[in-house]
Amino acid sequence: MARPREFDEAAALDAAIECFWTRGYEATSVRDLAERMGITGASLYNAFGDKHALFRRALDRYSERGTTARIARLEGQVPPRQAIETVLRDIIEESLRDTARKGCLVINSALEVAPHEPDCRQAVADRLGRIEAFFCRAVAAGQADGTITPVLPPEDVARNLLAVLLGIRVMARVQPERELFEGMLRSALTLLGPVTPAAG
């Protein structure tokens, strides 16, 4: 009969997130992780597998509590144009609160890990794809109700909005300035066209 785990798995994963987020994937050792998580190396392997498998679990948990959760709260609850702007403004505020300049774990991973780890690359691509898909759905809905210009295909607008989101996150690590981010946001919102009332 397997022995029950003697630690809080959710808390351990949160600690792993902080470790990877602060130090980066390559610079984080299994020893670093075990110490931060408050468990032995053997317990880490038994519960989560190797460092790579733990990283994937940490990335999943980080994503589900971040932008994915934000999208779930907004989509279908507020008008599509407002949902797009709210997500981008939330990213700006979150970036400005990041005084340690840790950035976004998903985007950090895209730059550090994805080029060398094919399955991590796919995991990061999946998460960014979910954000792009949200933008695409919102743009299509806004074009349907008349609040977003139909000049460009929703797919093109969505990719540009995702690029702006990524740009804000990257710039936040080197130049976290509200004026800069607001300018990026204004440029992004021009893709949606002038504000018009929704069709009744």
From TrEMBL:
Keyword terms: DNA-binding, Transcription, Transcription regulation
Pfam families for the chain: TetR_C_13, TetR_N
HTH tetR-type domain sequence ranges: 6-66
DNA-binding region: 29-48
InterPro entries: DNA-bd_HTH_TetR-type_CS, Homeodomain-like_sf, HTH_TetR, Tet_transcr_reg_TetR-rel_C_sf, TetR_C
GO molecular function: DNA binding
PANTHER family registered for this protein in UniProt: HTH-TYPE TRANSCRIPTIONAL REGULATOR YJDC, TRANSCRIPTIONAL REGULATORY PROTEIN
Entry protein name: TetR/AcrR family transcriptional regulator
Record organism: Gluconacetobacter tumulisoli
